[in-house]
Design goal:
There is one protein chain. This protein is α+β, with helices and mostly antiparallel strands. The protein has helices at residues 10-19, 74-79, 100-109, 111-137, 140-155, 172-179, 183-195, 211-219; strands spanning 21-25, 30-32, 41-46, 49-54, 60-66, 71-72, 86-89, 93-98, 157-158, 164-166, 199-202, 205-208. The strands form 3 sheets. The chain has a 4-stranded antiparallel β-sheet. It has a 4-stranded antiparallel β-sheet with strand order 2-7-4-5. Strand 4 and strand 5 (60-66) form a beta hairpin. Helix 5 (140-155) packs across helix 6 (172-179) and helix 6 crosses helix 7 (183-195). The longest helix is centred in the middle third of the chain and has 27 residues, at 111-137.
């Protein structure tokens, strides 16, 4: 999957950097909060962030994970509305920060950037539809399998035994919110997947040993 930076040529990347400032955030930093006016668009250079929203009951729900090359916060720049999610650094993050007006000016003069933004917003709408169907049609193991496949495709690195390692400090609470289940149900689903030999888990990583089996369960 191509990122925003992937689609930009060298000249376009130089122009983007000219308009932006480099910002760094420590692991765990709250970079922005939901319902704030968007004062900057971020282009991630290094590190990962999670996008979260709090339910009326006070529960944190993980919406997405973004990594190097990705855009964060462009939707608020485009529609002028407040941020729909909070942004938290999962690890040390370095990013280009660009003011909304500068971002819009840049996108309107760089066709590759404009096309990426349109396609990316469209894909996020499709992804939201897929997740609604998953929630209605699949059990917790199926939904968790789908999220692990998503992480493998975006951030997986081949492990020594041929599996894919995901080195992201996501907690069981994060995963539970992402799949729309309780922490206890998510813990049981992970245990079942471990017993089947599909995954192993550590404090800040997951290794998917049988991607094909997990994918079949996700498509279930």
């Amino acid at each position: 999957m191509s990122t925003f930076l992937d689609v930009l040529g060298e000249d376009d990347q130089r122009e983007l950097r000219r308009r932006a400032v480099v910002r760094r955030f420590a692991r765990g930093s709250a970079i922005a909060h939901a319902n704030q006016l968007g004062d900057r668009v971020l282009v991630l250079l290094d590190g990962h962030v999670k996008l979260t929203r709090v339910t009326p009951e006070g529960r944190d729900v993980l919406l997405a994970v973004r990594g190097p090359g990705d855009l964060v916060g462009e939707q608020s720049a485009i529609d002028g509305a407040v941020r729909s999610a909070s942004i938290v650094a999962l690890d040390a993050v370095e990013a280009l920060a660009i003011a909304p007006d500068d971002f819009l000016s840049y996108v309107t003069t760089v066709p590759d950037a404009a096309l990426y933004v349109m396609r990316n917003l469209n894909e996020r709408l499709r992804d939201a539809d897929r997740k609604r169907v998953e929630h209605a049609a699949h059990d917790v193991v199926g939904r968790l399998s789908a999220r692990i496949i998503e992480l493998c495709e975006r951030f997986g690195v081949e492990d020594d035994d041929g599996g894919l390692r995901i080195d992201l400090p996501l907690t069981q609470e994060d995963l539970a919110g992402w799949v729309g289940a309780s922490r206890e149900a998510t813990s049981r689903a992970l245990q079942q997947m471990r017993e089947l030999g599909w995954v192993t888990t550590a404090r800040r990583s997951v290794v998917c040993h049988d991607v094909a089996a997990v994918r079949r369960r996700a498509e279930g």
